[in-house]
Amino acid sequence: MVPISSRWPTFIARAALAGALAATGGLAAAAIVTAPAGVVNGPHNDTPAYDVWQRMDVRATASVGITGDYPRSGDGSVLMASGDGNGKTTWQYFPTGGLGPLSSFTSATYEWLRAAASTTGAHFHPVFRIRIDTDGNPATTGDQSWLVYERGAMGAYTAPTNTWVSETIGDSTPMWVWQSGAANSQLPTTTMAQFKAGSYVPEAGGFAIPGSSTILGIQVGTGSGWSGTYRGAVDNIGLAAQRTLGPDNFELTAPAPAAVPALETWGLLGLASLMAGLGLWRQRRHG
Asked: pLDDT tens, 90-117?
């Protein structure tokens, strides 16, 4: 057995590493996103892009973008507004290679706000969509589906106004599925666990969604067909699966760079870590 006295440098090194992690915060914070800032009014269609947040399919009277209208967790959030039933807003992120198989899904989160000035149905709020590809090849779009979280599809619901609502989508969360050509009736009894396990029973004209399907990306959006006006915002959006996205926080202003400690500060941190290591070594030696 190696004597403890000969292992004290290892103890000190580990203690120094722990001290350095504590001094720098240890855990990484959620990403802060500042682009694209400002609203774009419909009609507007961006060219789909990977690895960036973007506004897509902004229709007719709608507008979407990072603004300071409804600040959350800072000085901004993503504004979503439409003037009539033709309006639609979409905010999306599609990472290169996707986020992993559907079976690896753990949870998704986002926050939304519905302004009291909205005149559309009281149950409407920004919905969360997960894009699924059955064969994992984005170039073949005929086998793709949307898994949609929408409280109004689960039963009677009145969305609160002028207050932020935090949503968490987990295995037991009811979802409904949209597939081109299928009946598209909403399925509030279908949960994420059923999709993950590949036990979803497709509707007439639809197709099965196996757990091996690839999660291509996510969208949050409002409209279309919401008669009346809608105004609100979303923020802190993320999804955890084989790969994790966010939660991303949308702001007008990027955070200031962290101050670099002066040389004497680094010296004090190093001395403190050294003393912590010596204390640990002495405790192990005499314990």
From this structure: 999 999 999 999 999 999 999 999 999 9
Name the token pair of 73.
Answer: 């967790």
> Which CATH number goes with the domain that contains 99?
2.60.120.430
Per residue in 244-270, pLDDT (tens digit) is 999 999 999 987 776 666 555 545 555
Structure token pair of residue 247: 């939660």
**Assigned domain for 30 exists:** no
Q: For residue 133, what are the CA distances in angstroms to 35, 147, 244, 263?
A: 27, 11, 18, 52
273 with 167, same domain: the answer is: no
Residue of 65, 100, 37, 29 lying closest to 233 (CA atoms): 65
* Half-sphere exposure (Cβ direction) of 283: Cα atoms closer than 13 Å: 8
Contacts of 43 (CB under 8 A, 6+ apart): 58, 59, 60
246 with 265, same domain: the answer is no
Q: Are residues 150 and 279 in the same domain?
A: no
Helix (H) or strand (E) segment spanning residue 129: strand 127-133
Based on the structure, what is the number of domains in the chain?
2
What residues make up the domain containing 8? Answer: 4-25+260-286
Mean pLDDT is lowest, of 13-27, 59-73, 93-107, 242-256, for 13-27
Q: Whose CA is closest to 240, among 211, 215, 221, 219?
A: 215
Task: Decide which of 70 and 206 is more confident.
Answer: 70
For 153, the token pair is: 């599809």
User: Is the full-model pTM beyond 0.85?
Assistant: no
Q: Measured between alpha carbons, how far is 107 from 118 in angstroms, rounded to an integer?
A: 29
Q: Which helix (H) or strand (E) holds 234?
A: strand 230-240
> Do 119 and 224 share a structural domain?
yes
Domain contains 163: yes
Q: Are 21 and 141 part of one and the same domain? A: no
